[in-house]
Write a structure and sequence with these properties.
Mean pLDDT: 93
Strand order of the largest sheet: 1-2-3
Low-confidence stretches: none
Largest sheet: 3 strands, antiparallel
Number of strands: 3
Helix content: 40-55%
Order of helices and strands: EEEHHHHH
Number of domains: 2
Radius of gyration: 22 Å
CATH architecture of the largest domain: Orthogonal Bundle
Shape: elongated
Strand content: 15-25%
Distance between the termini: 69 Å
Length: 135
C-alpha cells in the first residue's frame, strides 16, 4: 500500500507533507534539540506526529529526566556537605518533610522547582543557610 503524499490537518485544514524538523524539548530548565519526522505544513505552524513519530521526543524527555535526577542527587549531597546539615535537618529546614533529602540523594524523588532553585542558591552561597535558620 502506497503512503499518502499529503494529508489535511484535522483542526486547521492546512495541507501537511511528510517532513523532518528539529524540535526543542525542555524539562526543568534543561533543553535538548531533537530531529523528528512527521506531517508538517510548509510554514512553522503545528503538524501531526502519528504512530512512532513521537519516539525521539519521548526518548529525549526520558534522557532529560535522568540527567535532572542525577544533577539533583549530586546537588542535594553537595548542598548538605557545604552547609553541614544532616539529611533530616536539611529536609525539615528546607522542605518541611523529614525524609525528602534522603529521597533526593537516592534519586527516589525530585524536589519541586522552588526547592530546586533554593538548592541552587545554597550551592552558590552556602552561608545563606544561616539566614534560613532564623526565618
Amino acid at each position: 500500500m502506497a503512503r499518502a503524499k499529503t494529508m489535511k490537518h484535522p483542526e486547521t485544514g492546512a495541507t501537511l507533507k511528510r517532513a523532518r524538523r528539529v524540535e526543542t524539548v525542555s524539562y526543568m530548565g534543561m533543553s535538548k534539540q531533537v530531529k523528528i519526522e512527521g506531517w508538517f505544513p510548509d510554514d512553522d505552524s503545528d503538524g501531526l506526529l502519528i504512530g512512532n513519530d513521537s519516539l525521539p521526543l519521548d526518548k529525549a524527555i526520558a534522557e532529560l529526566k535522568t540527567a535532572y535526577l542525577e544533577q539533583t542527587k549530586a546537588l542535594a549531597k553537595k548542598v548538605r556537605a557545604s552547609t553541614g546539615l544532616t539529611q533530616k535537618d536539611a529536609s525539615l529546614l528546607l522542605t518541611g518533610s523529614p525524609n525528602s533529602f534522603s529521597k533526593y540523594e537516592r534519586g527516589v524523588a525530585q524536589p519541586s522547582w522552588p526547592t530546586y532553585v533554593l538548592l541552587k542558591l545554597l550551592d552558590r552561597q552556602p552561608k545563606l543557610i544561616e539566614t534560613i535558620k532564623t526565618v
